[in-house]
Specification:
This protein is an alpha/beta fold. The chain has helices at about 10-20, 30-35, 70-80, 115-120, 135-140, 155-160, 170-180, 225-235, 245-265, 280-295, 320-340, 415-425, 430-435; strands at about 5-10, 40-45, 50-60, 65-70, 95, 105, 120-130, 190, 205, 300-310, 350-355, 375-380, 385-390, 410-415. It has two domains: about 50-210 and about 270-440, Alkaline Phosphatase, subunit A (3-Layer(aba) Sandwich); about 215-265, no CATH class. It is about 35% helix and about 15% strand.
């Protein structure tokens, strides 16, 4: 376990708050999270390096076909309801078993991940999703404390990334990073679009294109001292703000951008020990691997990344589309894990999937519809490989169904999922209670799939 102490420093947040107030804007994380910040204003000092990599599956992944139970009675119920979306033996990988010996199989698109399950580095976390408290079917039908706007892409995406039922301006990845004072330009990075997941009370994150250097135009001169002089002149100009708050904020944004460009340039030359697929998710994870190798070499610290793969809204033609998406994910994750393992960083990096919701077990023609609970993958040397949680009972209108089409009521909340990862990241129980305000409503804050910090 990494030894750490706490130091108090809220100067950065207070400075930002003052700037925003002067502009007539509210501070980031206003309301509930802002009030709770006082409980987390002591920054955690660490003596090791760790990184989290969130891979978001936009559209709502049909996790009913991500992993399939092979026990004959369960499989027969699955087959009876899934109909044309059933995965037969030719579309399932070699069986894997949970701690109790129950047999399952992963979707055949996940070929690179099956060996990682066998080596103990992959966990499958069953039936996760946003909850504010444990919820039964009877309670849900009575309207008791279910998240609002279920089955909505936009609302459920916000909830998946914030870990909260209502928008408060922060994501759970950003709040975890807040605990460590992640202020450098590579602390929170999206390789996709700007992500709410990365925004904390103090951390805002950067969005960069894979392979991009973001260099400022007009800085290339020879000899080098000429280029250096011009760059320094730009930096000097950024110190003249005349007391204007808007100008101060703009100058700071440009200065941060210049620093980010330098960091990306330094990381660009890293050699990869594995070949990444030339897919969007492959390109994103290649860039993440480079940034991790670069930052880890500098010593202790924390990083959080956000990647994305789109196309999971499979209302039709799901069979081929789902295989294509999962195989793209599997190939990219396989290469990514190979790189961090070869660098001796497998135990320092945890990658995991998220999605706004699962999909109905009962199909709609050649596809499936929006649902709720879903299964997620967690990969890394700090992962306790295995299958965690409970597979829903495959019964339409049954005890796990929020409706009558196989809309699973989650049994592991997003806050429990995030807190399990956050504990490995180095957060204490008090820190986790601040980062996930609804955590106290659940009987445990640890879903069990991570080794101790």
């Amino acid at each position: 376990m990494s030894a750490h102490t706490h130091t108090s420093d809220r100067r950065g947040f207070l400075k930002l708050s003052a700037r925003l107030a002067a502009l007539g804007l509210t501070t980031l994380g206003a309301g509930r999270a802002h009030t709770a910040l006082a409980a987390a204003d002591d920054l955690i000092e660490v003596d090791d390096y760790k990184a989290l990599v969130c891979i978001y599956m936009f559209g709502g992944n049909d996790a009913n076909n991500l992993i399939v139970p092979l026990e004959p009675t369960r499989y027969a119920a699955y087959q009876n309801i899934r109909g044309g979306l059933t995965l037969g033996a030719s579309k399932l990988l070699a069986p894997i078993a949970d701690a109790s010996g129950n047999s399952y199989a992963l979707h055949y698109g996940l070929a690179e991940l099956n060996p990682l399950y066998a080596s103990g580095n992959l966990a499958v976390v069953l039936n996760t999703g946003l909850l504010t408290r444990p919820l039964t079917r009877a309670q849900y039908l009575q309207g008791l404390e279910a998240p609002t706007n279920l089955f909505s892409h936009s609302d459920q995406t916000v909830q998946a990334q914030t870990g909260m039922p209502t928008l408060n301006g922060t994501g759970w990845g950003g709040r975890l990073l807040d605990l460590f004072g992640g202020a450098d330009s590579l602390a929170a990075v999206s390789l996709s679009s700007p992500a709410l997941f990365l925004r904390g009370n103090q951390v805002s994150g950067n969005a960069i294109p894979p392979g991009g250097t973001l260099q400022l135009a007009g800085m290339s001169f020879w000899p080098q001292q000429e280029a250096t002089a011009r760059r320094q002149a730009v930096l000097d100009l950024l110190t003249f703000d005349g007391g204007n708050t808007l100008r101060q904020t703009a100058n700071q944004a440009l200065a941060d951008g210049l620093q980010l460009a330098e960091s990306l340039k330094a990381a660009a030359g890293g050699a990869m020990t594995a070949s990444f697929p030339g897919t969007p998710i492959g390109n994103q994870l290649r860039e993440v691997a480079k940034l991790i190798l670069h930052r880890a070499a500098q010593g202790p610290g924390r990083q959080v990344f956000f990647c994305a793969i789109d196309g999971f809204d499979t209302h039709s033609a799901q069979d081929w589309q789902h295989w294509f998406l999962l195989s793209s994910l599997s190939q990219a994750l396989g290469a990514f894990y190979s790189v961090v393992k070869d660098a001796g960083l497998a135990s320092n990096v945890t990658a995991f999937t998220q999605s706004e919701f699962g999909r109905t077990l009962q199909p709609s023609g050649s596809g499936s519809d929006h649902a709720w609970g879903s299964h997620q993958l967690v990969l890394g040397g700090g992962v306790k490989g295995g299958i965690y949680g409970q597979m829903p009972a495959f019964a339409l209108g049954g005890p796990d169904d929020a409706g009558n089409r196989g809309v699973w009521i989650p049994t592991i909340a997003t806050s429990q999922f995030g807190a399990t990862i956050g504990r490995w990241f180095g957060a204490s129980e008090g820190d986790l209670a601040w980062a996930f305000p609804d955590l106290a409503q659940f009987p445990t804050s640890d879903a069990g799939f991570m080794h101790p910090a």
